Amino acid sequence: MHSWQSYVLLFIFRMKRLLIDRSGELNVEKDRRELEAMAKWFKPLTPIECIPIVANNVPAEWITPGGISTERVILYIHGGSFNSGSINSHRPLAANIALACKARALIIDYRLAPEHHFPSPLEDSLAAYEWLLAAGIPAEHIAVMGDSAGGTLTLALLIQLRDQGKSLPALAVCLSPATDFSMWGESWTLNKRKDFMLNQRNIRNSMKIYLRNADPRLPLVSPLYADLLGLPPIFIQVGSVEVLLSDATRFTEKAKEAGVSVSLEVWNGMQHVWQYTASFLPEARQAIRKIGEYAKNIWGE
Known about the structure:
Elements: H1 4-19, H2 28-41, E1 48-55, E2 58-65, E3 73-77, H3 87-101, E4 104-108, H4 120-134, E5 142-147, H5 149-163, E6 171-175, H6 187-190, H7 200-211, E7 234-239, H8 245-257, E8 262-267, H9 282-299
Parallel strand pairs: 3-4, 3-5, 5-6, 6-7, 7-8
Antiparallel strand pairs: 1-2, 2-4
Helix pairs in contact: 2-3, 3-9, 4-5
């Protein structure tokens, strides 16, 4: 049974969808403002210490939940359709996940479209990961995690690290990742009217400015088309009403066929990256606890 808070959020999202510009025109500045504003509504669940740094020329921030003292690190890659989002907008989500995992988080401000295009965000993610290794943090103490576009970049980073013969992180966690930007999966049709967070025309336009002339089926763009052999353990959460549902299920099936240890949770009735709303939504807190349990099962207590 869903919480009353979930019905409140669903009503808000539904009203927002009714009022949205249906022309399909992409307004990046508006999207950025709205995503930044969300950080004012949803807060970390615990006091945190934030230290701005630069990691291999990538703006970043150490987030340490109160009472956490550990060598374990989460490299957190935020979402936002590759053109929005920041350290500020995703600080609460990264902090809440770090708390559940009893780890520190390094969240990065990767370069955004349309000012920068593929593969700039992936290059920045790789640079930050290499900075962690160079700082003496063993790969087995690192987890890479991300939501939405950040989940896509998380998977692409794993593939790139493997292909380059570099040390792989202990685990990865993806919240509602896009894995196939051909938008071929069946949930793009079946959940079109149920998903109040993602507008398909907006996504197509976002991909145009991000990819420019790059092929949307490149493995580092759409990880579903990559060889997945040899990737580390992966945990995926997705809502049952998301257009990205089949992106998650198809990737999971292919990863299992390649021998990857991958776990998928489909949360009934949840919208895109519902974990963001943990300071309000019980289901978000429950999902984040599951992430913490998964990380602890691999890292140990």
